[in-house]
Write a structure and sequence with these properties.
By secondary structure, the chain is an all-beta fold. The chain is built from 1 helix and 15 strands.
Amino acid sequence: MRKILPAAALLWLVCPVAHADPPDLSSMPQLILPPATPPAEVVLGPLFTSSVTAASNYIFRGVSQTANQMAIFGTERVSYDQFYAGAGAENVAFHNGTDAEYDLSAGWAPVIDGFRFDFGVIRYGYIHEPAHTHIDTVDYKAVVLHDFGPITLGASVYYTADFFGSGHEGVYFEGSAAYRITKKLSVGGALGRQTLEVGTQHDTWNAGVNYALTKHIALDVRYYDTTEHDLGRTYGSHYVAALKAAF
């Protein structure tokens, strides 16, 4: 899920911040490489997946969304053939009353000649925003991944026409690499750049280790940093540990 109020610098003017994942929805760190995708002609029917993640910090594009405090993430996703839709929620702390984020996503994820693509849209919404403040944001994304033996390389771009209530465009670029050492252990990292039509831009990077404790539970330990430490502690260096359960 991932998702910042990215570029906290600009956002702190209206409301503190900057997730992700993650999470693609993303904004949480997770290097467990996805299993091989069935051939395009094989349709297995709707697939429902859920996950819960506890992390020592919520980092989105290098910027803490929880004022360097703990975060809890929950996600639900349904996929059918090459299409998917999902929803997620997590806590945030912007010091203006905003204390929760929800994420809605949908997209098309074809596999072509060994390249895994993901073309989709993500809406980041926020709970308990201050009156007359609207920072909900919609990102359009394009992602590609390819395996070269135990190495996976990726590239992605995210575009929004209204960057977290600023009224201006924002584009985020990222390149990533992961190396599977064993079936359970992988290492990897990413290098990204948040560009803005108006406001402070920044580069970010991360590197870490991911270990599958069981079939459904994984531990990720990761270092994050940005080029804009002068913008405050949320843009500083972070070591983050995250425990994720997926079903």
